[in-house]
Fold these 3 entries.
Entry 1:
Amino acid sequence: MGISRSRQRIIARFLIYVAAAVVAAGILAPPVWLFISSISTQSELLSVPVHWIPQNPTFARYVRIIRAASEGGEAESTFKRSMINSIIVAFFVTVLCVSIGTLSSYAFARLPVRGKTQLLFMILFIYMLPPIAVVIPLYETMSRFGLLDTHIVLILLYSAFLTPFVVWIMRGYFLTIPKDLEDAAMIDGCTRVSALFKVVLPLSVPGLVATSLFCFLMSWEEFFMALIFTSSPAAKTIPVAIAEFSGRHSIDYGMMATGGVLAALPPVLIALLFQKYIVSGLTSGAVKG
């Protein structure tokens, strides 16, 4: 006896819910365990079997980081300073990448640039280039200009590697905007530039917000270049500061987990506030390429 259609739909829906629950559990398990580790004592973290629920939860590590002095050589002080460094670097990288990348992507989307297809693939090649392949010449160049261990070196490097990402995303988004709107604006007296700022960019807000958020998140979590090009608390970013909780003879897993939770809060809050722009911006930009 065959299964009725209604029962098939119920089974299919049940399997979808089960799959969604498994995926959600896999996504939520790491941050939940990170938070549990941050409020567990060192003995509970090293105990066997594992204590999934801390018996003596404590927020002392958060207090130590928040009350840490702004200057000093301890890991807590370095972490507090590194959070400020990460905010500064991520902010200026986002501004530079979005400003330069948006203008470039508009030119690729609208202007008759000779060989723009080849240029676009060259830009894509730059974005796909692994940083480790060029880290030695970049280090020598920045050393000659005296830019090592500064905010400027990270801003320049991150901007160089993230601008191609902005160009590709925003070019796809501009292609979804009807060109007739710009033509109508120019008939009414607007120049190409004024049509861009008065017509195109206001319609591109979802794409701009999504691209800005991704630039901010990518520069916020980058570790390799920050490790190579910075060496003091004055320029180190959060990923490097978290790694320093691991010493030569011991590893403070609790402080590493606490640093991970604090480092994740700004990106998570930003993503939650602007999630509709992220989804609409990326989906609209993916229609044409």
Entry 2:
Amino acid sequence: AVNINARGLRSKTSGLVVVLLPDIANPFFSVLLQGIEEQARSHDMSVLIGDTGVDRAIAENYWRLLEGQRADGIILLNGFLPFHPARRAADYPIVVVSERIGGVDAPFVGIDNVAAAFDAVSHLARLGHTRIAHISGPAENVLTAERRAGYRKAVEAHGLDEWPEAIQPGEFSIRAGRAATGRLLGLRARPTAIFTANDEIAIGAIMEAKAQGLRVPHDLSVVGFDDIEMGQICDPALTTVYQPRREMGRKALETLARWVEAPGRRPADILLDYKLAVRDSAMPPAAR
């Protein structure tokens, strides 16, 4: 265990890193947090996790640890700054992970979400699907916008069908996936495939399709995003975009540690590789 008080006597650092995330129950974050914790131990650091939701007041309470020099830095997974935007993020040891924060000059660790979404939809297009719907995440979320942009880019590049209900609003949840899929399956000309903004939505889409008597992927193909464990064991196993979440966590902590050790030198952004994990939830569309 790290003795923070003893460390403080030896140096000007506390050895404490604060990690802020929007929903500790979201399975996306578990492996990422493991990577952060593993790398923290190699730097003789401790990790304090803050579950902020979208409440800026909670985030500001954690920020005061850094401002009061009781923490060395903050890793942000929640998509917003924990302090008033008049302050410059570049003046503090802050690393942004997975979800970019607009206008913030802080090191970023993540993947190219636009390119990954483009590749996921392109996979469905190569299978022969032309009527592909998209279920998005929360309206104001950066990941929602980036993955929707990748979807639209693929629709244009492959000359896929466009119709008013093709993009369905949603949240990053199974419930939202079921609701949006219900709306899509109620259309006179329903899609043959759905690309979702995360895996929980995709699992909800599969559940709703089955509830309505459809077979996945024979009657409806589904592709997700993130590659969480639930997607690997659902029936059928989910084709999805794999994100290197453990490596993302490790790189985030390593980036923060370098900044703490050399405060005047802002670390560079890190863009990690993704890949399409092809499993059993997508196949060529059935003849109609």
Entry 3:
Amino acid sequence: MLVLLVPLVVIPVVLLFGYAGCNQVFGLDPTTLNFTPINVEAEGESIESIRISWAKASSEPVTFKLFRITPGSEAEFTTDATEYLDTGLTPNTEYTYEVLAIRTDDFRESDRSESATGRTLDFMPAFSATLTTDQAGIGGFCLVQRIEPVRLVRSGSKVRLVLQGSTAGNLLIDRATISQVATGGNVYDSAVDLVEIATAVSIPAGQIVELPVVTYTLDQTKPLLVAFDISPTAGMGNVRFVNPVPATDASMHFRAATAEAGIQDRLPSAANPGAPPYNASTSIYLVQRIDVG
């Protein structure tokens, strides 16, 4: 019976729309079949972004819908272009994508493309040091670590500090900041680019701690300051350092009963020019590594 009905359906369609209309009615229009995007590629562009590109499979006007299908981070994006920069991603992580086309005349969607996977870039070290010695009794001190350009091997716009605590006791850092050196004043004064990295950083004995990533332009051609306010809490002022290092490489500037990590103009300052200056040492404290991306 079904075979007998087919001519009854097809013949009227041919009479009304022609043979091309028959294709459209039964979903066989060749212009709707092969417009799934092709040549999909995904490539890491930075520590937090991947660029996805593809090609149109036909000349008809279309827009695109991009799918990030990585479990736990699924997302959808729309674009008229044949590429898209996916941002806000996790460093050194793989993400997988698919894309489909949407016809602008009837909004029909193509099948999804084959998937493409890319990996965000990883952080790279801009500075490293091997810390060898423990020291106690630094509670309430402000430490300003100056690092000279000779020890900085690359620049970057994202920065991650890796700190090494004492093997003998705990450490609590009230505040940590990063900056370039001011053009005037003390050699440990911060420039206007001073950025807070973290507060209330606890480093248990023998541990290495990565601080949160911050947006900061580290320029390897300029001296760098990393400043710490060590908590005055009893028993929480244990640090690790290496000494001596060449003065052309780095220097530590420190002052007791002081909390100036977040201040650009440190003592003696314009407001208090008679204050005693920080003490200096050819040492590197706490900073095991500075990574950039």
